[in-house]
Design brief:
The protein has 897 residues and is mainly α. The protein has 37 helices and 9 strands. The strands form 3 sheets. The chain has a 5-stranded mixed β-sheet, covered by helices on one side. Strands 1-2 form a two-stranded antiparallel sheet. Helix 31 packs antiparallel against helix 32. The longest helix has 65 residues. The protein is elongated. 45% of the residues are buried.
């Protein structure tokens, strides 16, 4: 048991190393050190997940059973990388421009962002990948069984079906690793640097392991290259006849799978950092495959020659070193197979969990929780939890398949079953990329018919008789119709089961796809997406056709914050508002902005779900004139004229909207000015009347007591102070607006300044509570502290005066980001009406006529003060109550230091 103990220890150490590599890469990415993570070498090595345990162990078994047929598994991807490089570039460009998160997302997005189509692709991908995951679990279990057999030669090895606990522990460990490093970020377009780096390292490990075993076999067992060639010539491998039809069929199948496997799409498209990396991968990855296949025939030939009859040829890579007592080489070989299995399972689980979360769980959750869930629900946690549960579910399905099938199928056969399943995506995928006339109806028809035939002819029979299909059905067909037998459909007898299923499934898939597309008419959104996919290099930046007339920007911001996070969403909205020339955080819901928001959300929840979420708020979508021209494929002259006309129309509409807004604002200012004149007259007349009345009493009454004289004099004094304060506000605002103010720069702390403002505003009471973070307020300031305090006093006083909650709670939040001090004042009141939010910083503006006690100059003075201090004060929408943000640069403080 010594070797087994060492093997377990090595496995644990290797897993710890993988954790360390993944953690280090993630940490480097968070710190911005990503240049080496974005290397084309790392990208090329990540493509090695195509080389799973099937190619590490099963290729040798394939060669031992079928001769040179194993080459087809490597030949297909090589032809794609070299001959179809332009197709891969198109895929990557579409993925980046449409923010695609999975192959289901791409197909769904192409055909009108249909979630039904995405669900179908997701289900088929999960079912099709299940045998592949079972293959990896079986390979690891077989490896342990082989070590156990050589560790105790006299003890019979337990059958594979009795070693299911090993597969279960492996599946559990892989689930933990994938959850830790594959679901850190919600945004699937945020690359999984840790996972990719771990896969790149595993690619090197499995290549070195296979080359080491090959060198040992050729020069250690066979006696050199010449002797090795003689042994191959004399072995059964040289006598295998290779059918031309099977050779072409398997080559095409492996090429299709290379394009359609969810894990390959994940690393090739989603994890791609730069299109130019494909140039390196186009020659480097075929070179990697050549090295992986270099010693397959020698290992198979020597294994057939020296190993006992009945030995599993899938394990020759492992059993040959064990038989010769090379335990170290055997452990290295085991690590190579272990790396091949784990890398595939990790990436496949990430890809499938993203598909299940985005296209199955999220739409169901949004449907049952209603539109309000986008405002009040925690979408990020729901999506992340769904992905983590999906990872566990996917690995559990692979374990169940392994357990039901009993592990009796050869590794290569299990891999080919998965290949045929995912190949059903190819017609819809390629048709969507190159044929503008492809429709959602055709894609659904093709996928459904192809998947049904694959399930009937290959997947379900792979479990063996009496599991899902009876032996009578296999022999006589359903209801006695022999031409419907699973392995002889429509009388095609004697064919290889894999090629039989591939032929009929793709024939009906392509036929249904073409027929459905020709007989149906695409929806406007399908035509728009078709033009953008087919002409992706011309339309990568073409905006979508949202109509934002009914959109509410504040609702969109709240929804985006729930999915992307408050900081990212506010940055996106603020940048869009800045480009439109709109102040604050709420841009106009223009078609350009809504398209930008949809693609940002698609990185987190998928294109179809993002489209549906925005549609719930916006209420509809339209296709622009330019896109209609692109879809109709009119002449270049008409298209140019149309685009110019549309641009002019949009410019005129934008100008008209701005003029209308300016007119409405001027009207409001005029009304407020009239109210101000009335209010200011009242404010001036009231103290003047009091002063006049009490001064006449003091002048004309001789017998007043000393107490009355003191009282009347105090009233005259108070009214004078009130009058002076009003005149000071007017003068202060005028001075600030004319830029005549001289700043008195002082040093102090933010904490002391807020303390001063709270005291000046009346302090805390039983009905007015203030929440603060004094630790965050320990910021040194070098500015005009008196002016800044004036702003804080006004905001605290407004919260005390206008908050209608009992008790009123004011939260003062402080943050420092990128040399900018940000202080938010948020209370729990009823909020400011949307129509008033753009006017509250104007002169003479008052919030709420019933509670207004001033002339409406406070916030206008605050705005002017902050402008003079180099910062700004703004209203912050999308919060729980009225919220104001004061932002001040700290560069002055740093320069003073």
């Amino acid at each position: 048991m010594t070797v087994l103990n060492i093997l377990v220890l090595v496995c644990l150490l290797y897993v710890v190393l993988l954790f360390g590599v993944a953690f280090g890469a993630d940490r480097a990415a968070r710190q911005g050190r990503v240049r080496w993570l974005r290397s084309p070498v790392v990208y090329t090595l990540s493509l090695s997940i195509y080389c799973t345990a099937w190619t590490f162990y099963g290729a040798v078994g394939f060669a031992a059973r079928s001769g040179l047929e194993f080459v087809t598994i490597y030949l297909g991807p090589t032809l794609v990388m070299i001959g179809w490089w332009w197709t891969l570039r198109r895929l990557v460009r579409v993925g980046r421009s449409q923010r695609i998160t999975s192959i289901a997302d791409l197909i769904s997005s192409r055909y009108g962002k249909s979630n039904l189509l995405a669900v179908l692709v997701t289900v088929l991908a999960v079912v099709g990948t299940t045998p592949y995951i079972a293959l990896q679990l079986q390979s690891v279990t077989l490896s342990f069984a082989a070590f156990a057999a050589f560790a105790e030669p006299g003890v019979p090895t337990a059958p594979l079906s009795d070693m299911q606990s090993t597969a279960l522990w492996v599946a559990a460990g892989l689930a933990v690793f994938t959850i830790l490093f594959g679901t850190r970020n919600l945004d699937a377009n945020e690359r999984h640097h840790g996972v990719v780096m771990a896969i790149a390292m595993e690619a090197v490990v499995k290549l070195c392991a296979l080359l080491a075993v090959g060198v040992f076999v050729v020069w250690g067992l066979a006696g050199g290259v010449a002797a090795m060639l003689d042994r191959i010539e004399a072995s059964e491998i040289a006598r295998f006849d290779v059918s031309a039809g099977r050779w072409v069929g398997l080559t095409m199948l492996s090429a299709m799978a290379f394009l359609c496997l969810p894990r390959m799409f994940q690393v090739m498209v989603v994890e791609n950092e730069d299109e130019d990396h494909l140039r390196t991968a186009a020659w480097a990855f075929p070179g990697y495959l050549m090295l992986m296949s270099l010693f397959v025939l020698p290992i198979a030939a020597v294994g057939l020659d020296v190993m006992p009859a009945g030995t599993n040829p899938d394990l020759f890579v492992l059993t040959l070193p064990l038989m010769e007592g090379r335990d170290g080489l055997a452990i290295l070989s085991f690590l190579g197979g272990f790396s091949s299995a784990t890398s595939m399972v990790i990436v496949a689980a990430i890809a499938l969990s993203t598909m299940v979360s985005n296209h199955v769980v999220m739409p169901i959750w949004l449907h049952y929780s209603g539109g309000a869930a986008m405002v009040s629900g925690d979408v990020r946690n729901v999506a992340l939890t769904a992905r983590r549960i999906s990872i566990v579910g996917v690995l559990f399905l692979g374990y169940v398949y392994f357990r039901i099938s009993g592990g009796g199928t050869a590794l290569a056969a299990m891999g080919l079953i998965a290949f045929v399943g995912v190949a059903q995506f190819l017609p819809a995928l390629m048709g969507g990329l190159f044929w503008r006339g492809a429709t959602r109806t055709g894609a659904l028809a093709g996928l459904c018919t192809g998947a049904a035939i694959w399930l009937y002819c290959l997947f379900l029979p792979s479990f063996g008789p009496a599991v899902f299909m009876s032996e009578a059905l296999h022999e006589a067909g359903p209801w006695g119709f022999g031409w419907l037998r699973p392995y002889a459909l429509f009388g095609a007898e004697g064919m290889d089961p894999v090629l039989h299923a591939l032929m009929w499934s793709l024939l009906f898939n392509v036929g249904s796809f073409l027929l459905g597309s020709l007989l149906s008419f695409p929806q406007p959104l399908e035509r728009l997406q078709g033009a953008q996919f087919v002409n992706v290099f011309d339309h990568s930046g073409t905006p979508g056709g949202w109509s934002g007339g009914m959109a509410q920007s504040e609702d969109l911001l709240i929804m985006a914050q729930r999915i992307m996070g408050a900081r990212e969403a506010q940055a996106l909205f603020s940048a869009a508002a800045g480009r439109q020339g709109v102040a604050g955080y709420l841009p106009e819901p223009s078609p350009d902005f809504l398209q930008e928001l949809e693609r940002a959300l698609a990185g987190s929840v998928g294109a179809a779900t993002a489209h549906a979420m925005i549609a719930q708020i916006v209420g509809g979508a339209a296709v622009s004139v330019r896109d209609l021209m692109a879809v109709a494929d009119e002449t270049a002259q008409i298209m140019e004229y149309s685009s110019q006309l549309e641009a002019k129309s949009q410019e005129l509409a934008r100008t008209a909207r701005q003029l209308r807004q300016a007119n409405e604002k001027l009207t409001q200012i005029s009304v407020q000015k009239d109210g101000f004149l009335s209010q200011i007259s009242h404010e001036l007349r009231t103290p003047m009347t009091s002063i006049r009345a009490f001064s006449e009493i003091l002048r004309d009454t001789d017998d007043l007591s000393a107490e009355d004289k003191h009282k009347y004099a105090a009233i005259i004094h108070d009214e004078t102070v009130r009058l002076t304060r009003l005149l000071d506000d007017l003068l202060d605002l005028s001075v600030l607006e004319n830029g005549q103010v001289d700043l008195n720069v002082q040093s102090g702390t933010l904490e002391a300044l807020i303390d001063r403002a709270v005291r000046a505003a009346g302090g805390e009471t039983e009905h007015f509570i203030i929440h603060r973070d004094r630790e965050a307020e320990r910021v040194d300031l070098s500015t005009d502290l008196d002016r800044l305090a004036q702003v804080f006093i006004n905001l605290v006083s407004n919260a005390r005066k206008y908050c209608d909650a009992d008790p009123a709670v004011l939260s003062i939040r402080t943050a420092v980001a990128e040399d900018q001090l940000v202080v938010d004042f948020v209370d729990n009141g009823g909020g400011i009406p949307t129509e008033m939010q753009a006017m509250i910083f104007e002169k003479f503006s008052r919030i709420g006529e019933t509670k207004a006690g001033g002339a409406g100059l406070g916030l206008a003075i605050c705005r002017e003060i902050m402008a003079r201090l180099g910062g700004y004060v703004s209203y912050l929408p999308g919060q729980t109550g009225p919220a104001f943000r004061v932002s001040l640069p700290l560069s002055g403080r740093m320069a003073a230091q």
